Amino acid sequence: MGVSRIVKQEFTVIGIEDSTNDGNGFIEKLWSEANSRFEEIKDLLLAG
Fold this sequence. Notes:
Layout: H1 26-36
């Protein structure tokens, strides 16, 4: 497997930070929080 460089246009990453130290179910908790806060970011999403 070789290494290659790909140049992309600028983009933004939106996320929620947490830790595996929260134990089992932390991924489900993050998805639940992200889904409940969708209204905060909906205007930032690209229109198809």
